[in-house]
Amino acid sequence: MKRRIIRLGVAGTLAALAVSAVGIPAQAADTQPAKPGLTTEAASLPAASAPAYVELQGFPEVGGQVGISHGYGSNSGLNGPTKVSYQWLRNGVAIPGATGNVYKVGSADVGKKLSYRATFSETGRRSVTLTSNSSPVVPSASPAPIVTGTATVGNILRGTQKEPWAMTVPVTVKYQWLRNGSTIPGATSLSYKLTKTDLNALIVLRAQGVSGGKVVGSSYAMPVKPSTLKQLTISPQPIGSDPRDPKRGPYSIGLAQAGYPLILSNAVWKQAGAKNSIQWLRNGAAIPGATGTSYTLTAADVGSKVTAMITGSLKGYADTIVAVESFNSTIRTAPAAGSVPSIAGKATVGSVLTATYKKDPKAVFVWTRNYRAIAGATKATYKLTSGDKGALISVATRVTVPNTLFPEERYSFAVVPR
Questions:
Q1: Are 254 and 180 members of one domain?
Q2: How many domains does the chain fold into?
Q3: Global pTM value
Q4: I need a surface site. Which of 93, 135, 163, 312 has the fewest CB within 10 A?
Q5: Are 395 and 412 contacting, i.e. CB atoms less than 8 angstroms apart?
Q6: How many Å is the Cα radius of gyration of the chain?
Q7: Tens digits of residue pLDDT in 353-396
Q8: How far does Cα 320 stand from its chain's mean position?
Q9: Cβ burial, residue 146 (10 Å; 0-12/13-18/19+)
Q10: How do beta strands 5-8 and 320-324 pair?
Q11: 293, 324, 355: which is the final residue of a domain?
């Protein structure tokens, strides 16, 4: 059976409370928010609807992504006639072409501070511009190589390193092709010619960063399984209801922290009747038993990178793998006990969930679905609806952190209603 690799990005545009698909809300801010900026429109015009602040969301490391957050409340600036435009900033200077509601962090950002500017506009009103907090980029990333080529015996697979490695120490990246987890002798370049021995075996390209004779980081390309059959074709699907969201293949959503679940959308194929199987991966290796559409991160995942692959199968076709990336975020330790809100109740449609936060009995809550605020869901209780089935339902509150200028959003461990 032949497997073709289709590499797809994650749905990073999924949040009005925009959290990267295994990203973590920024923990501290280091700049004052800019005052709303006025355009040259008449000062007598009323201001466009806008939130009180905007925040940068996500953990800014090379290869990862950061997103926007408009805060929450009735005057969020996301409803009605208000239009929002964005400009990402590096050390306060506009980054050319970076005008989306997510930004992919690259090597050029190392040592710099990222923020964004949001402009809220309405017809007949003067625009309001707000600038988010800034956050320094963490110079640590071991992005996986990408393998291309037709997986048939005699053909050549080629690996490319589209994202550069960025570590705290200088590294030399070395490559090794693996067959069913074992090294293939002499296969240490970015290209590899498939042989009869590779037929129906899992072929993987491994990248390792070496410093001082020691391996300081590893990453793995998605597996290839050589075959002689024709391939399935992915059918991109719309993501959410936001018109800015693109069509793409399967994506994952969640926070990159132990204790939090990740969920995965299914692949849709152009060939009718194709069936999917799922495997979650830790540093490119299969996580035993992790074969469902959701996976809860554990202590064993801390320090690793968790991704997933979906394999489409149909008689007469090669098994085809869709590689679902996860922003390359490194999984972090679980939050301290009592530091985040908690949810009580049965995670089934029709049941009522109750939020509590022991550190602040008067906490204001906002319920979220896939880390988007649920309209009107600002009480301590929330009744699950049919629209919540299979989604990540969590509750957020804001906490004032000493010696910081912005409040911090704390998210409960999410539940996935059935």
A1: no
A2: 3
A3: 0.62
A4: 93
A5: yes
A6: 23
A7: 999 998 888 888 999 998 888 989 999 999 999 999 989 999 99
A8: 23
A9: middle
A10: parallel
A11: 324
